[in-house]
Amino acid sequence: MRCPYCTKINNKVIDSRLSKDGRTIRRRRECLECERRFTTYEKLEDVLPMIVKKDSRREPFNREKIISGIRMACRKRPISMTKIEEFVDALEFYFQELGKKEVDSSDVGERVINKLKEWDEVAYVRFASVYRQFKDIGEFMTELEDILRTKKEEESP
């Protein structure tokens, strides 16, 4: 492992800890050249499915792309990065355990949109407006009316 400060490869592991889910090892290292400390994470290489897009293109499952989309939807909303990362961890694990070689992008999108609907209505609408590609304000209003109707039903005794 190369030191991020001096780029030398001579270092030692000071401490190792297993993550909560047991799938990642956090290692605290010290460079033997510059004596600075840094952290690395070791993770088993995942065998994730290819994502089949609407136009039939295939691309690798991209965790960072999913996180980026969720973060955009949750911008200035009370949803922590930890919560987002835990959800994406669970999503990744789900698709890994499915054992399929290919998964439709709509499967991923629907899982994300359902989680956002559960977390925060504003984040949900933001994501839905991009994901569902509303063609006009009428489609957008229909979605908002559905949210309001659901909320009223939940608040009714």
Describe this structure in words.
It is built from five helices and six strands; from the N terminus they run βββββααβααα. With 157 residues, the chain is of the alpha+beta class. A hairpin with a 5-residue loop joins β4 and β5. The strands form two sheets. The protein has a three-stranded antiparallel β-sheet with strand order 1-2-3, with no helix packed on it. It folds into two domains: 11-43; 50-155, no CATH class.
Strand runs, count: 6
Mean pLDDT, nearest integer? 88
Distance between the termini: 60 Å
Shape: elongated
Poorly predicted residue ranges: none
State the order of secondary-structure elements, H for helix, E for strand: EEEEEHHEHHH
Helix content: 40-55%
What does the main sheet amount to?
3 strands, antiparallel
Q: What is the total domain count?
A: 2
Which sequence of strands runs across the widest sheet? 1-2-3
